[in-house]
Each structure stands twice: as structure tokens, then as C-alpha cells.
Amino acid sequence: MSEQRADWTKGGEGIVYQSCGACGKAQYFRRSFCAACGAPDPAEKPARGTGTVYATSLICRAATPETRAHVPYNLLLVDTPEGFRMMAHGDNDLAIGDNVTARYQPFAGRLVPYFAKAK
Prior knowledge:
This protein is mostly beta strands. It has a domain at 50-117: CATH 2.40.50. It has no helices and eight strands. It has strands spanning 16-19, 26-27, 43-46, 50-59, 73-79, 85-90, 99-107, 110-117. It has a five-stranded mixed barrel with strand order 4-5-6-8-7.
């Protein structure tokens, strides 16, 4: 029986990734197999919610009516200590190389990971 973990993709405050039991590779988003070696049923694990900014892009034009209230907003690629890279929202002043920590806040009607500089 699989343990339920808090996960932002299901409305919770947490980030869940998968780890392959055969090769040890981490992956993010869920798949029924390891994208690196093809082994079935990678294990789900909770991420710490920390990382380093790999890339940042300040969005100054709303893509949809729901995002208009958030402009400008920053989209990031974050490298995590668990070994996966994820896209997320973050403070507008973040730069490549910044160490960050996630909190969770609403964006266009969904609760999403939102990164700020680590203290």
C-alpha cells in the first residue's frame, strides 16, 4: 500500500518526486517507469523544497485571463538536492545561482510551489 504524501499537484503543500530502485535516478513528474533505465514502479519520495536557481524568466505579459492579476511573475528552473530539476514560480528578484526554499501560494486558482531566497 502506497503512503499518501502532501503534493502540490493534488492540492497539498509539498513536492513529490520519484526515485528508481534499480538505478537510483530521480525524476519529476510521475511516470509508471524510470525514464533513465525503464524499470517499473519508481518509488515516490517527498522533496525538501529547497534548491538552486538554474534559470529564471520574468513574464511580463499574461498568457491567460487568469494570470493577468499576477503579471509580472517569475518562472524558474530549480535544481534540487534530490537530483531533479523542476519548473516553479518565485520572487521576481531571484537570479541564477540563488539558493531557494519553497512555500506554497495561490496562482491562477491553484496552490503552487513558490520559491524565495533561502535564509
